Amino acid sequence: MKALHLLIPALITPFVLAETVKDREGAVRADKARMEADKRWAYNDIESGFKQARLTGRPLLVVMRCVPCMSCMGLDTAVLMEGEQISPLLDQFVCVRVINANAIDLTRFQFDYDLSFSTLFFNGDGTVYGRYGSWSHQKNSADQTLAGYKKALEAVLAVHQGYPANKAALAGKQPGPVEYVKPVDMPKLAERYTRELNWDGKVVQSCVHCHMIGDAMRASYRDRRQPVPDEWVYPMPAPETLGLTLAADQAAKVQVVTAGGLADKAGVKAGDEVVSLAGQPLVSAADFAWVLHRSADSASHEMVVRRAGEESKLTLNLPSGWRKTTDVSGRVGTWSMRGMAAGGLNLVDLTDEERRQRGLGTEGMALWVKGLGMHGMHAAARKAGFQKDDVLVEVAGMKHRLTESRLHGHLMQEHRQGDRVPVKVRRGDRMIDLVLPMQ
Questions:
Q1: What is the pLDDT of residue 36?
Q2: Whole-prediction pTM
Q3: What pLDDT, in 10s, does the model give residues 102-134?
Q4: Can you tell me the distance from the alpha carbon of 189 to that of 198, in angstroms, rounded to the nearest whole number?
Q5: Are domains 239-324 and 328-437 of this chain identical in fold?
Q6: Which of 172, 176, 55, 62 is nearest to 124 (CA)?
Q7: Is domain 239-324 classified as CATH 2.30.42.10?
Q8: Alpha helices (runs of H) in 91-234, residue ranges in sequence order
Q9: DSSP 283-348
Q10: What is the pLDDT of residue 7?
Q11: Is pLDDT at 18 greater than 60 in this prediction?
Q12: 328-437 carries CATH number 2.40.50.460
């Protein structure tokens, strides 16, 4: 069977989601040897894929997958062992595999850089049809994600069949302006990487991993002493930010709606199939996240849902500051933000019950230090006197309740590299004043 398990080399972080195989070099080289002989896939050659798509009239599918990363091995295995479920669909695409991000064109490839498995779908003329890849796909079972991937392929083929008559509806899916065209154009990456992989040496060490794109962008703002924009602190907001969960085995079907959330206020119901959002046809949860990613601080979007066989139009209102409620604590990119903004502190907002047990109120700040980094910029908080099990109750004069994600956003937008931020922590029965260095 044809394997779909793609590329971009391993994510070097302490996150469980980024756990890697022991022989990372061997995994990448074995993948190359196997897949270069596979007639279905154009291996690491995007331009040939676009050329073939133009010549054949088929849509282009570009999969980006970290070979050594274990978080999506279930989906890889499912595709490899049960390829007959999607093989007839893949036959209708020009398929490209990309194993590194060194020289991808960022004017074309804009997606969730923190993931270890992503797919972008194009017309041969470069028009983006849709995106696949979300945190739900990485967390859920292989059976669910394989079914969801099949739904995405079917949805993209339907979009392709309607092209170019539907091109206006795809306008919002297209990439936005970028500061750097290639990842290796970014100052932090240009120092260490070239456009080509070092197949004659240590190939994995020569690879720009996808998550490094976000890391390098945030670093570039910090180095210029500029606030980091929301889109780089809270990228590709999950549907859960609005109070809804999409089923992993469907394209964009609502599984759960949280009472009182933005989706609930818009009239969304569990079981609804989201046909389009902001005029864009959805092929997966990643398309939903893309709309949110490109939304303004406050916005209003039309949402078309199919309910009981009939389509209805709803209005989704995003109030000012909605994006800052996004939980990014589980993202790979959060690791670098913990170093930049929090000196390596791993913080958790205590629950109401945990607060009561410690004699703390439910309205104020109570960020528990779950752990501290030991090396490099992640050791700064430890060196500044912070300890495990401290509870942050005031940071830079802020005392209100907030999450780690929201604190990172505030510190990276309101404070600059080199600033020293006053912090009050509760340690046992004592209150202690400390200073957190911004990096």
A1: 84
A2: 0.91
A3: 999 999 999 999 988 899 999 999 999 999 988
A4: 15
A5: yes
A6: 55
A7: yes
A8: 135-139, 142-161, 187-190, 210-223, 230-233
A9: SSHHHHHHHHHT--SSEEEEEEEEETTEEEEEEEEE-TTGGGG---TTSTHHHHHHHHHHTTEEEE
A10: 33
A11: no
A12: no
